[in-house]
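Q: What would this chain look like folded?
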Amino acid sequence: MTHRLRGVRCLVAASVLLAAPAPASAQESKSSPLVIELVKLLDAMKLDSIAAKVQGDQYVGALYFAGSQLLVVGARYSVPQRMDAQLAGKNYRDVYIDLNSASIPDSKVLVSDLGANGLQARRRDNEPYDTVDMGGKSYAFDGDWNRAKISEQEYMKAFQTSDAEYARMLEALVAQLKKAS
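A: My prediction, written as structure tokens:
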């Protein structure tokens, strides 16, 4: 009877652990599956850049360094006709450059996805970490919220907001590539 009771206790303890919510460190990235899809399309089409119009005067552009990095910028642009002409000419790299350097500053979001694997909330081992510049703030997703002088909760909120915006930008880029193929 004692062995049976001990077995039941172990089973209950295991069930509680499995049912407990995952810690923040195990949080899934919304952008990861979209980056995988985007990278496959870029590789298949032998492209190292892509850009798209999101809506109105909002655009997004990306530079892809195969196997290592994806740089994505989204912003409003004060001369949409110029941007539309660049897109029509498939001058994606020029769109990226213009958005990165001459866009409306307070609208700019810049993502450095090191590893081209979607935003990760924490660095793994000694790998490089992702960064996001958004809303006039810069975030280094290295897992060290103390160095950033914010709480873990604020850090994870910044990650969730950044990841959601990155996913939105990636959706526009994937749609552009699918339309072009």
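The CA atoms of residues 73 and 110 lie 4 Å apart.
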